[in-house]
Write a structure and sequence with these properties.
This protein is an alpha/beta fold and 500 residues long. It has two domains: 282 residues, Aldehyde Dehydrogenase, Chain A, domain 1 (3-Layer(aba) Sandwich), CATH 3.40.605.10; 191 residues, Aldehyde Dehydrogenase, Chain A, domain 2 (3-Layer(aba) Sandwich), CATH 3.40.309. It has 17 helices and 23 strands. Strand 13, helix 10 and strand 14 form a beta-alpha-beta unit. Helix 3 runs antiparallel to helix 5 and helix 8 runs parallel beside helix 9. The chain is globular. The chain binds nicotinamide-adenine-dinucleotide. The site of nicotinamide-adenine-dinucleotide (NAD) has 30 residues, from helix 8 and helix 9. One of its GO terms (molecular function) is oxidoreductase activity, acting on the aldehyde or oxo group of donors, NAD or NADP as acceptor. It holds the Pfam family Aldedh. Keywords: Oxidoreductase.
């Protein structure tokens, strides 16, 4: 059976029991069934598979395997590593349809979003495959010195064993953002998928093996926070790349401090979308809907704080209401579905509790979207209607805290300084969107907004070539782009006498 066949089978029938770990190409199972947790279909609430939890000794074994594989992988010429990464990208494209179906089945994402995820994964592997052919990424380069008697060189070595910990909202995508540069740099890895969406990572791992990634170079440990936490404290781990909540990120940073492990943290956000008075309002509405309700708002980059100039506020709100009410909140198989469920019952309860707290603090709902009638009657999935709150106070929890669900707040402003102050008035700083027809003002916003990425008049386009990451509580470091590769390399220098 080829991987694509097994993927198709997983999508059509039940999912297999995912082993506690995959170590040097072997599936390693838990000793007993008490170590099994259900994997749900977020659209129906049905159990569609099981995943085991890795024990302390299995985590250790996985790290040891990555350590043992490090020297040969690091010694593999970058161009050879690149050829393997290119094959991964091709395998992902070949498996596109079953991968899309798997994403839809587990996370309940609408087809268009699941397709975008798969495209992103392939593009990320292809980009880092390309960087592997650029000598400047790996070869020693001379450094100009003011002293002619000596020569200096700068060079880059892989950091070592990388622990890669990912969340559930874009499972294969965040994994690709870590794995592709780590492998390109010559690192080996132990991956800890989210406990809720691990089938996606296991499917990707099958493709990596098929593409020729040697055994032991990428290992997987399954489980929740405790497995992640144990992985971060393992003394043979040299680097941690973590994507998840700011709260968990703090624990990870503490754990890394013990051995001074290198860390990249991609954490939460509370991003703004700014609609200037000269904005194309139709464009602004479509960017607001995409920014707040793609993936049911479960995005670190959700632009859930929408700032609208007084002069266009009424027009914007009327069109925004029409657009939000038109969202088809339904399982991905439903024709025209545009918004899926939340990932779990527990997460929906958390989001609803935040909404209730926001209301108790005085927030006013301007309008709601709706969950499709059929879904309300027949489905037991984790759906929630989109909510738009108008003019919350600056200290309302819905304005200050990351909700990670389909909840957007709108506030009006009168001047650009006020809009910029409101947008920057957060301890996060991941992304921002500005909607304006004035190029000069767009540049002004780009300079003044304190975020890792600013979009002007575009949807949330993400390219492997540009960096991803933010200020403040949004994390440390950058993924993607050249910075993504460098974050898996140690910068080194050598100085020696110049030849006479
Ligand atoms: P989470 O922090 O609960 O979990 C993320 C991952 O970390 C999971 O695999 C989890 O098992 C593991 N984990 C939890 N506690 C840990 C610990 N103490 N040590 C090690 N590992 C631990 O987050 P989540 O609920 O899965 O995802 C949602 C969060 O992720 C949101 O806050 C969102 O903003 C953030 N996120 C950020 C980005 C980004 O690029 N900045 C992208 C996606 C998601």
């Amino acid at each position: 059976m080829t991987t694509n066949d097994s993927l198709r089978a997983a999508v059509a029938g039940g999912l297999p029991v995912l082993p506690a770990a995959r170590i040097a190409g072997r599936a390693v199972h838990a000793c007993d069934t008490s170590q099994r947790s259900a994997i749900y279909n977020a659209s129906t609430g049905a159990t569609i598979g099981w995943r085991e939890t890795a024990s302390a000794s299995q985590i250790d074994e996985a790290v040891q395997a990555a350590r043992a594989a490090f020297d040969p992988w690091c010694a593999t010429p970058p161009t050879v590593r690149g050829a393997i990464l290119r094959t991964v990208a091709e395998r992902v494209e070949e498996a596109r349809e079953p991968l899309v179906a798997l994403q839809m089945r587990v996370s309940g994402k609408p087809r268009v979003e699941a397709e975008a995820d798969v495209s992103d994964v392939a593009a990320t592997f292809a980009y880092y495959a390309g960087l592997c052919n650029e000598a400047a990424m790996f070869d020693a380069e001379p450094v100009a010195l003011p002293d002619a008697t000596v020569l200096a060189e700068r060079f880059y070595d892989p950091v070592g064993v990388a622990a890669l910990i990912v969340p559930w909202n874009f499972p294969m995508v965040t994994t690709a953002w870590k794995l592709a540069p780590a492998l390109a740099a010559g690192c080996t890895a132990v991956l800890k998928p989210s406990e809720l969406t691990s089938p996606a990572e296991h499917a990707l791992l099958d493709l990596l093996a098929q593409a020729g990634v040697p055994e032991g170079v990428v290992n997987v440990v399954n489980g929740g926070a405790e497995v992640g936490a144990r992985l971060t404290t393992h003394p043979l781990v040299d680097k941690i790349s973590f994507t998840g909540s700011t709260a968990a990120g703090r624990h990870v940073m503490h754990a890394a401090a013990e051995d001074m492990k290198r860390v990249t943290l991609e954490l939460g956000g509370k991003s703004a979308l700014i609609v200037r008075e000269d904005a194309d309002v139709d464009l602004a509405v479509s960017l607001a809907v995409g920014g707040a309700f793609t993936n049911a708002g479960q995005m670190c980059s959700a632009t859930a704080r929408i700032l609208v100039h007084d002069h266009v506020y009424r027009k914007f709100m009327a069109a925004f209401e029409t657009a939000v009410r038109a969202l088809v909140v339904a399982p991905p198989e439903t024709s025209g579905a545009t918004m899926g469920p939340l990932i779990s019952s527990a997460h929906r309860t958390r989001v609803q509790a935040l909404v209730e707290r926001g209301m108790a603090e005085g927030a006013r709902v301007a309008f709601w979207g709706q969950v499709a009638d059929k879904v309300m009657v027949e489905e037991a999935g984790f759906f929630m209607a989109p909510i738009v709150v108008a003019e919350p106070t600056a200290d309302n929890v819905l304005w200050t805290d990351e909700v990670f669900g389909p909840v957007a707040c709108v506030k009006s402003f009168r001047t650009d300084d006020e809009a910029i102050a409101l947008a920057n008035g957060t301890r996060y700083g991941l992304v921002a969107t500005v909607v304006t027809e004035n190029e000069e003002m767009a540049r002004h916003y780009r300079r003044r907004l304190k975020t890792g990425l600013v979009w002007h008049n575009t949807p949330q386009l993400i390219f492997a070539q540009t960096g991803w990451g933010g200020f403040g509580l949004s994390g440390i470091g950058r993924e993607l782009g050249l910075a993504g590769l460098r974050s898996y390399q140690e910068l080194r220098h050598a100085i020696a006498p110049a030849p006479r």
